[in-house]
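Internal tracking record. Fields below are filled automatically when a chain is submitted to the structure queue. Please do not edit lines marked as system-generated. If the sequence contains nonstandard residues, flag them in the REMARKS field before resubmitting.
Queue: standard
Priority: normal
Entity type: single polypeptide chain
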Amino acid sequence: MALYTFQPVANGLRTDHPIPDLPFVDDSNIPVDNGEAIEKIGRHKQGMWGRHDTCTDGGWVAFTTDPTRNDLAWVVRHHPEHGQSVVLYRDTDASPVDSLLMWEEPTGLLYRAGGYWWDGITWYRPSQLFDWAAEKTFLRPVPAAVTITAGDLMRDGEPTRARVLNVGEVTVPATATSDRGWNDDLALWASHRDDRGLGDSIVTLTAPELVADQLVGVGEMAEIAGIGASTLRAYISRGEGDIPLPQAVIGGRNMWARPVAEEWAEQRRRSSEGVEEVVSADHEGAANPIGITETWKRFSRTFFSLLWERQSFRKRWALRWRTETAVREIAEGLSWQVAASIPKLVGVWDLSTTVRQALVYEFLHGRDLHRSVHRDDPAQRENYVFFGLTPAVTKTLDWLIRHEPAAAAGRAIEQAIGEAEANLEIPRAVTEESIATALSLDGTLDQATREAFLERVFTPAANRI
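SYSTEM-GENERATED OUTPUT FOLLOWS
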């Protein structure tokens, strides 16, 4: 989930980059300049939480549950050059927002206009497209983007018409405190500043694609995606379909930038459902993957041959053969045809090679992670015990063991252990313990069967060092 999908509640009074249309709240009870002190406020306290992490850009991220409003939390993103954002969120949103800022979207400093984001230099469109090969989102810069600062907006605001809220006064969702609009709140915020010029305080952006007459509504967005407008409205009302946030609300209607709509449609085409759609065959009005359709046709021919062309079966269609026992015999025979075909249908020996490669990668990743954690402790750097394996890899290995134990043993497990020992210098005891632990946690074999199988696959006890 993208960070911008978590909606902020209010701006802290000491923020450097106000979020439009949100009120300003007194944050004097939060040490916004000290991440460790912010964490300390809420950490390990009943009904509260706090956390602080340093960032690769030299800044930090911290959050804490508000001491007086445990349903709200402060999140601070500090940058050594661009200052800090002090934002009030729902308490349930603070931890995922902190994690996204720290690990998944660490270059994103500001989010505006329904997910457009700024990394300190460039504005990008909302991150909708994921590059699975590189394990990161595609970056789409906004052409001709112009940053709008507080200094650009200070023409019409009157601070005396607005007021700073106490955290106890905050409503969710919160709105501007002035009847004349948010510019009054912004002017009030500016009157409290004495450390940074308003030209350095970024409020939002503008770009040709964000001009009002370039935005699209529900009907056009649905047309771009190739779906009905009613379908899109249903997605929005049910919170389905990963619909991007609108860039504006005009006359009560959600409006999106056309490129955002087009990238959402592109994301739909690249999704698992979209991929299945393009590799599907139609049968009696239903679309199924080509392989499923081909398998269905194959067994349709096989079953028809068994039931009609074999005289021993065909005669059972006489009335006197229509008994539960007779039908069960046929069903069991047909089911066996399917079960016996699984190794050929799935390609278990090819699958075992894939599982072997996945295990080797898991061991490599585990080794490198262990070395990184203990990089300052030479005594522990090579002292492995076991590595955690991804549940999906473990479950696939478990399926292979259950359906073709020889392939699982020889081509997958044993070869993976051998490669890890020869090429990665990981002792067998470590890889074997890793596999055994993973299968005990995420596998489906009963303990006795699992241990008996592994005993015949792992290094014999007499040969273990």
